[in-house]
TrEMBL record:
SMART domains: HALZ, HOX. Belongs to the HD-ZIP homeobox family. Class II subfamily. Keywords: DNA-binding, Homeobox, Nucleus, Transcription, Transcription regulation. Its main location: nucleus. PROSITE patterns: HOMEOBOX_1, HOMEOBOX_2. It comes from Genlisea aurea. The lineage of its organism: Eukaryota, Viridiplantae, Streptophyta, Embryophyta, Tracheophyta. Residues 12-72 form the Homeobox domain. One of its GO terms (cellular component) is nucleus. SUPFAM superfamilies: Homeodomain-like. GO terms for molecular function: DNA-binding transcription factor activity, RNA polymerase II-specific; sequence-specific DNA binding. Gene3D superfamilies: Homeodomain-like (1.10.10.60). This is Homeobox domain-containing protein. Residues 14-73 bind DNA. It comes from the Eukaryota.
Amino acid sequence: PQAKSGDEEDNAGLARKKLRLSKDQSAFLEDSFKQHNTLNPKQKLALAKQLNLRPRQVEVWFQNRRARTKLKQTEVDCEYLKRCCETLTDENRRLKKELQELRALKASQPFYMQLPATTLTMCPSCERVATS
């Protein structure tokens, strides 16, 4: 006969079957979770009694459900931040390009053309630039 590994021997007497909930039990726990995502001891006992489970099973189910909720929220937040980062990166690229173009334009123009556009007005009779 094949020798058992240390793990198998240790768990032979302790191995418990994974808790399988009925559809009704699951639905009831989900509804309870929607109302309160944490339970006080009284609520835990009442739920366990109602669902024919041990209080510890109800407690662990709620802990796992909170962990799944937190993980899902973290994934959603991460996706949102990725999109924000992409948007900001694009905007940054666009602004850098615009800045380069403006610097090139400034270097190639005479001084009077470098004044802010809002202060420049064209004198219609002589078509010269006049500052207002």
